[in-house]
UniProtKB/TrEMBL annotation, chain A:
Domain of life from the UniProt record: Bacteria
Key words, A-Z: 2Fe-2S, 4Fe-4S, Iron, Iron-sulfur, Metal-binding, Oxidoreductase
Identification of the protein by name: Succinate dehydrogenase/fumarate reductase iron-sulfur subunit
Family to which the UniProt record says this protein belongs: Belongs to the succinate dehydrogenase/fumarate reductase iron-sulfur protein family.
TrEMBL record, chain B:
Record-level Gene Ontology MF annotations: steroid dehydrogenase activity, acting on the CH-CH group of donors
Residues of the FAD-dependent oxidoreductase 2 FAD-binding domain: 13-432
Coiled-coil residue windows: none
Cofactor(s) of this protein: FAD
Originating organism: Nonomuraea terrae
Active site positions, chain numbering: R325 (proton acceptor)
Keyword terms of this UniProt record: FAD, Flavoprotein, Oxidoreductase
Protein's recorded name: Fumarate reductase/succinate dehydrogenase flavoprotein subunit
């Protein structure tokens, strides 16, 4: 069952690099990450790759396989022809540290800019009562394993470094939606979604949804409903009137 | 300090090593008590092994069955650990777990709900009542994300107050600690390197909390991630602390067996908790043949009774598929050995004939996904093939139950790296709650220790320099390939100190480990110090070999079978051995020393929570006489 596959793997650090050719053994049932590990053990001991659980649960081994953002641990070799050359490159939206490892600190900065869960005052731990149907919407978004592939694929920042300051990417717009839909969250999040996190940049091309390894419907269930909530508020005549009279923020 | 000129220096009150459930909970506590806290972790923030926990966190909230309470949970925990547990830890754990789970909810966690809107609880092996708070089968992810977001919330508070997110709590991600530093007998800091750049980092800190998890990467077939190289266990030993119970390793009964590249990946116990059954190649539900004497009264003896239990727990006994993990793992092992295994060397775990497809997808979404994507198996239509996988080490740093303090002043430990709580075998679901309960206690313990310190221990330059030399050594050498040495260690431990052990094999393993110890000193890593996995592995090998030696030496010494330690040559449980713990330490040299230590006697009000009949299965005659005295008075 075993065969030799041709791989091109991006190698380099400090802003420079190139695709390196490898011929490497592949066995039944293996995934791309197994092959990267075999390269480390036999041909390139210092080949850098992030990984952890190897079961699609931690979101560490995000990479681009033949140009598509994928988790290395969930991409089976059997999905390729045996004579196909497989090209593995780092995520394009984030600066490369070395080989397949990128600097994803952008994501952690954005996470920090979103005000945390804000329960109403006076509800003590143990007193929370929520219906299953009411938590399910946010639960879907909490399936996120933070592989950051949605942010990687999003065209707003993929080739537009300049947008990174004003755009938090699908991952964190979804986080805002998650909090906004949390039955006990009382913070006002809609204006910030639009003004500070760049919800308006999203033109719902659904690239994020397509690459999500957790199959979260990011666009349909998080981004579009958030846009609707923002719009409802902006164009609701009563809200408009209220804003005029009370100078609400 | 000339020799350490390219070493960054940071001052903290508390340094937490590890950012899984225990580490984050410890750090949150230390910061909430006003301590400047560093979290140092080998992976990115939010990727720790805790994300892989599936089933849930055990806490006797009584939301599903109001008869549940801390005493029932305490009893289940002690039974699961075959009465070898540190009873004080089991007591604190059972009492405090509900508060720790509720606290997560107040920090934004969204657990699955009961009909009346409370946190739902599910059945699990060894737990008398439905007890595990859960989110589908991704509870660990929910927990890590909630704690991660709590850390961020605290950073936001600090940003408000001090204008700096990292004024009081900072995460050093992709940073590995290689040595603890001491001033006399006290902790004075920690030394490590940035994985990204290879640059060195020095933490000047009077208190260190170890929360590094387990040791599974010393085995080939394991559910553990690469991070589980026993770092905390080894750091503690090297700093002069003791490890206990290292012979007890939990082989989770249900790991994937196929394809080979995913062998060992966990299949959650929730599959059985939610109705899944184990069958051999003859189609027989074989677990009925493996109910041990000590559990005879609690488990169903017929399929009919077992099946009724799912809907009527008051009038039926539990299915034997839900025996503690050690029992189920041994049973699967025996079935396969007897030639009744599945085609790919496991047994069948079937939920497809037990629940409707939609229900399976709702309750076990990540299992459905995992089998579909990795093995082309649709678990709603066909059985899974599963077999035992190295999952958890019960042994770890010997700590004070209340504060998490180790024998070395200033050193604390919580979670899997600590020992005692689970005795000889951990119940499923007791890990996530352990992380929360003892993470918080260790964080508080470290904070209190810092408050009481008269003077700050000093970092000694010569210790820093020798740590630096040690870390750099593999980079300059053209020695053995670290990947090969690692593989040999994994094979050795797997084959010779695995689920079933015998003296000759364990002795043979020790000889191999001795040789590997020498080879580890000579491994070489090609390439630069920048994000170099070969170099990182070369450094981790020191820890894996040291910890493996502890496991093997303790396993050789304990001449009985109990929980996660099964001796083919001593198949019975021996009450005399229950009174002894095996304590590993490093003498002056690098050889592991194992000594017997007497187990503390259980407090009167705790031991009297058990029936006399049950205790006779575990205690010596002498202890029973004492018990009768207590019971009378």
């Amino acid at each position: 069952m075993s065969y030799k596959a041709k791989f091109k793997v991006w190698r380099g650090e400090g802003g420079e690099g190139r695709l390196e050719d490898f011929t490497v053994e592949v066995n039944e049932g293996e995934v791309v990450l197994d092959i990267i590990h075999r390269l480390q053990a036999t041909q390139a001991p210092d080949l850098a790759v992030r990984w952890n659980c190897k079961a699609g649960k931690c979101g560490s081994c995000s990479m681009e396989i033949n140009g598509k953002p994928r988790l290395g641990c969930m991409t089976r070799m059997s999905t390729f022809d045996e004579d196909e050359t497989i090209t593995v490159t780092p995520m394009r939206t984030f600066p490369v540290i070395k080989d397949l490892v990128t600097d994803v600190s952008y994501n952690y900065q954005k996470a920090r800019e979103i005000p945390s869960f804000t329960p109403p005052a006076g509800v003590r731990p143990g007193e929370y009562r929520m219906k299953q149907v009411d938590v399910e919407r946010s639960q879907e978004f909490r399936k996120c394993i933070e592989c950051f592939m949605c942010n990687n694929v999003c065209h707003v920042i993929r080739d537009h470094e300049e947008n990174k300051t004003n755009f938090s990417g699908p991952r964190f717009l979804m986080r805002i939606a998650e909090l906004d839909m949390h039955p006990y969250d009382v913070a006002d999040r809609q204006e910030a979604a639009q003004e500070e996190h760049g919800l308006g940049y999203c033109n719902i091309t659904k690239c994020c949804t397509e690459v999500c390894p957790e199959h979260i419907k990011i666009t349909d269930n998080a981004l579009i409903p958030m846009k609707e909530r923002v719009v409802d508020r902006k164009y609701d005549p009563l809200v408009w009137l209220g804003d005029k009279i009370f100078r609400r923020k | 300090m000339e020799n350490t000129h390219n070493t960054e220096r940071h001052e903290y009150d508390v340094v937490v090593i590890g950012a899984g459930g225990a580490g984050l909970r410890a750090a949150i506590e230390a910061r909430q008590q006003g301590k400047r806290t560093a979290i140092v972790c080998k992976s990115l923030f939010g990727k720790a092994h805790t994300v892989m926990a599936e089933g849930g966190a055990a806490a006797a909230m009584g939301n599903v069955n109001p008869d549940d309470n801390w005493m029932v949970h305490f009893r289940d925990t002690m039974r699961g650990g075959k009465f070898l547990n540190n009873w004080r830890m089991a007591e604190l754990h059972a009492k405090e777990a509900p508060d720790r789970v509720w606290e997560l909810e107040a920090w934004g966690a969204l657990f699955d709900r009961t009909k009346d809107g409370k946190i739902s609880q599910r059945n699990f092996g060894g737990h008398e009542y439905p007890r595990l708070a859960h989110v589908g089968d991704r509870t660990g992810l929910e927990m890590i994300r909630t704690l991660q977001q709590r850390v961020v919330a605290l950073q936001q508070e600090d940003h408000e107050t001090h204008g700096d997110y990292e004024a009081y709590i900072k995460v050093f991600a992709e940073c590995t600690v290689t040595r603890l530093l001491k001033d006399g007998d006290r902790i004075s800091g920690a030394f490590g390197y940035w994985r990204e750049s290879g640059n060195f980092v020095l933490f000047d800190a009077p208190a260190v909390v170890l929360a590094t998890g387990g040791i599974g990467k010393s085995y080939v077939v394991t559910s553990n991630s690469w991070e589980y190289t026993g770092d905390g266990h080894a750091l503690a030993l090297l700093a002069g602390a003791n490890l206990i119970n290292m012979e007890f390793i939990q082989f989770h009964p249900t790991g994937m067996v196929w394809p080979p590249s995913v062998r060992g990946i966990l299949v959650t116990e929730s599959v059985r908790g939610d109705g899944g059954v184990l069958r051999n190649s003859e189609g027989k539900r074989f677990m009925f043949d493996y109910i041990p004497e000590v559990f005879k009264h609690q488990y169903a003896t017929t399929e009919e009774e077992a099946d009724r239990w799912y809907t009527d727990q008051a009038n039926n006994r539990r299915p034997p598929e839900l025996l503690p993990r050690d029992e189920v793992a041994r049973a699967i092992n025996a079935e396969v050995k007897a030639g009744r295994g599945s085609p790919q060397g496991g047994v069948f775990l079937d939920v497809s004939t037990r629940l409707p497809a939609e229900e399976i997808k709702r309750r076990l979404p990540s299992m459905h996904h995992q089998f579909k994507e990795l093995a082309d198996v649709d678990i709603t239509a066909e059985p899974m093939q599963v077999g035992p996988t190295c999952h958890y080490v019960m042994g770890g740093v010997e700590v004070d139950a209340d504060t998490g303090a180790a024998a070395v002043p200033g050193l604390f430990a919580a979670g899997e790296v600590s020992g005692g709580m689970h005795g000889s075998n951990r119940l499923g679901g007791n890990s996530l709650s352990d992380l929360l309960v003892f993470g918080r206690r260790a964080g508080a313990g470290a904070a209190a220790y810092v408050d009481e310190l008269a003077g700050r221990p000093k970092v000694l330059p010569e210790q820093v320099e020798s740590a630096r030399q040690e870390a750099l050594a593999p980079l300059g050498r053209s020695g053995d390939n670290p990947y090969e040495v690692h593989h040999e260690l994994q094979r050795t431990m797997n084959d010779l100190v695995g689920i079933i052990r015998k003296a000759e094999e364990v002795s043979e393993a020790l000889q191999v480990v001795e040789k590997l110890k020498e080879r580890v000193k000579m491994v070489g890593a090609a390439g630069s110090a920048v994000y170099n996995p070969g170099w990182h592995l070369a450094i981790d090998l020191r820890n894996m070999v040291l910890v493996s030696e502890c496991v093997a030496r303790a396993a050789l010494m304990r001449e009985e079978s109990r929980g996660g330690h099964t001796r083919d040559d001593f198949p019975a449980m021996d009450p005399k051995w229950r009174r002894k713990l095996l304590l590993c330490s490093l003498g002056d040299g690098s050889a592991v020393k194992v000594e017997e230590k007497a187990q503390q006697q259980m407090r009167d009000d705790l031991i009297t929570l058990f029936d006399r009949d049950e205790l006779t299965k575990y205690l010596t005659d002498e202890e029973m006489a004492e018990f009768d005295g207590i019971a009378k008075s």
